[in-house]
Amino acid sequence: MIENPSASSVGLRRDMEILELLAGHGGGRDVDGLGVSWIAQRLGREKSQVSRALRSLESEGMVERDPVTRRYRLGWRLFALAARTSQSRLVQVAAPFLRRLAMIIDEDSHLCVLRGDSVLTVLSVPSSRAYHRIWEGVAIPVIMAAASRSLLSDWDDDQMRAILRAKLPGGLSAELGDEKQWLADAAHVREHGYTTTDVELEDGVLGVSAPVRDHRGMVAAAISVSVARVRDEARLHEMGRLVGETARQLSIALGLPPGSSFDYPVTSGP
């Protein structure tokens, strides 16, 4: 005789059903999440039961609730865990490239991926400096991340304007840059293979980033380097060239065919 599953197993299975439903509706019209009533109806369960399960998942960081729409979506703790599983090959392949880059330029180097409307750092390699801010496993809004310029570099201008205006309907602040600068940064990535920006989360720090592509030529990640402010513009762009070349080599290691239309030479910017 087969025993009935324990209550804990049933609860876990029901939680997984919710997570799978949220994961399957992570884009398009449902990018802002799903409501409790819709989830309950889709799963054929009581709304109160689903609400309790979501609150429990939220308390553990597995889902998060938008304070405005009150809809739920996957939480960043779940993405951070996934970064060590589904992203494990990316991280494993990228590690020696980032270590070499950090050693050459002696600046903190990061590997970032786009997750929804946030940028998640899945790998960080520190410089030789004593103080380091911990970014690994941390997700920040796309509008606040220097790496987002490279992660979104394949988007057309209208798509980029749409996400910027959706996140800040009142317009970008001086601290976050403006639309014109965002578009210029993305164009710089396409032309030179990297970009620089003075919009960073730490005072006195510049961001340098470059896109990493997979075997299909699609942007899969970005290498981002936090650079202490330098007055020498030529040195900053030399760092950009090194970051871009590292991203290009990593792309080839991930399966991008050498000589493909995406395997463009990294050139120094102005």
| Assigned CATH class of the largest domain | Alpha Beta
Enumerate the strands of the largest sheet in spatial order, edge to edge or round the barrel: 5-4-3-8-7-6
Largest sheet: 6 strands, antiparallel
Name the overall outline: elongated
User: Architecture of the largest domain in CATH?
Assistant: 2-Layer Sandwich
Oligomer: single chain
What's the helix-strand series? HHHEEHHEEEHHHEEEH
Name the structural class. Answer: alpha+beta
User: Mean of the pLDDT scores?
Assistant: 79
CATH level-3 fold name of the largest domain:
Beta-Lactamase
Fourth-level CATH superfamily of the largest domain = GAF domain
Q: What's the total count of β strands?
A: 8
Low-confidence stretches: 26-30
Domain module count: 2
**Backbone CA Rg:** 21 Å
Tally of helical segments: 9
Alpha-carbon distance between the termini? 75 Å
What would your notes on this structure say?
By secondary structure, the chain is of the alpha+beta class. It has 2 domains: 7-74, Arc Repressor Mutant, subunit A (Orthogonal Bundle); 80-253, Beta-Lactamase (2-Layer Sandwich). It is 42% helix and 17% strand. The chain is built from 9 helices and 8 strands. It has helices spanning 7-23, 36-43, 47-59, 76-83, 88-105, 148-151, 157-167, 179-192, 233-253, and strands spanning 63-65, 72-74, 108-115, 118-125, 139-141, 195-197, 205-213, 219-228. The strands form 2 sheets. It has a 6-stranded antiparallel sheet with strand order 5-4-3-8-7-6. The protein has a two-stranded antiparallel sheet with strand order 1-2. Helix 2 packs across helix 3 (47-59). The chain is elongated, with a radius of gyration of 21 Å.
